[in-house]
Amino acid sequence: MSLQLQFFGATEHVTGSLYVLRAGEYTVLLECGLIQGGSADEARNSDPFPIPVDDIDAVVVSHAHIDHSGRVPLLAKRGYGGPVYVQNATRALCEIMLPDSGYLNEKDAEWENKKRSKNGKPLVEPLYTRADAEACLSQFMGIKYEESIEVVPGLTLRFHDAGHILGSSIVELTYKDKGPVRTLVFSGDLGYRDAPVMDPPKQMHRADAVVLESTYGDRLHRAFDETILELGELFETAHADRGNILRPAFTVGRTQDLLYLMAEHFDEWQLGRWQIFLDSPMGVDATNTYSKYRHLYGAKLFGPDSSLPNLPNFHASRSTEESMAINAIRSGAIIIAGSGMCTGGRIHHHLKYNIGRPECHLVIVGFQAHGTLGRRLVDGADEVKLWGEIQKVRIQLHTIGGLSAHADQADLIDWYAAFENRPPVYLVHGEPDAQQPLAAMMKEKLSAPVSIATYGLSIEI
Questions:
Q1: CATH code, residues 3-219+405-460
Q2: Which site from 20, 62, 379, 455 is most exposed, i.e. has the minimal number of CB atoms within 10 Å?
Q3: pTM of the shown model
């Protein structure tokens, strides 16, 4: 019987990962991510799933980031009642991130409906609610790295450490029927070789087909020691300017990396003269989860008897009142707040109070999707709209590429090079400008049979 894979998400784009694997008469959804970006992109999240929900027998999710897991509550809301297989730490993070996503959906709908009510337009419903997200969590089945489990008859799943964030997994799916055994390896999101907290991705050696992310397929990250120097210079400059530092937070991954580096270089960067705020309830909960699962990585982010980062001036800000109080600080605050692409959350409030101040600094440390506020700022926007008001952009902007949680071109090529049989490889989770140089380099260096996956492409393994 056949093993077929069809691509329906993160094809020539970075968000909204979703693939359909047909193993004989069974159907497995691989990833179920939220589409992120501008309003037109995000509106597509409410479209019907590309296959009938009733046809899906199992779901496999590589890691907790919302662009990989964020439509699982919608899938359940529309009738899916089967298992969702994830790594144990991913399950713990999804218990934090998915209800938060539902809450944000509710707030977005509430904001939109205020405008619609004034204009006499019909009201909208949230994509899914916090309650919807909480209800689907009982379907999540956590398994350990390297553990084998049959997800549908004949199809065995194993997760391997992808080194991207806590619990992130390379997905290995092996299909055995009356014919030869076939193996699909999906990279998930691969970590960067110099990642501060996570261990390097596991190398794989054999597969019949490989699906490979390509977020940074067109570039090499700068040497990590240069990033350390750049961060030190940033803290020194910002202190001399007597302003604040804003850091939009990818609350899982980059936040913990930065907290670890700040602890490691506390004296060198003279961070004792700052107050460090993690202004994100979800970020605080995620950091606690990193503490609980500290056996999955080698970095010493926490003290032996503590679940708090090793920073004496660290403040975990949960309540709205605590968050609002930060806005009264005009100088000396390092504010880590969601969201990482500035699409919502508490960072909007802090931008409102700081974006027009040239003595303040905004630090971008991760990929910014097209259509997001973060991308407009990185692209040099002179003014932006916040809370319905046009704000002049006078804050100093810094992009720190060396803190990426994604592999760069060299990492991606090295990871694929470990496959001894040079299986066909399909690039996903990247924009064309990143995918085309990666494909060309893989062909040149490794004679790799590489293709860029397009929406609806179906392959037989």
A1: 3.60.15.10
A2: 379
A3: 0.90
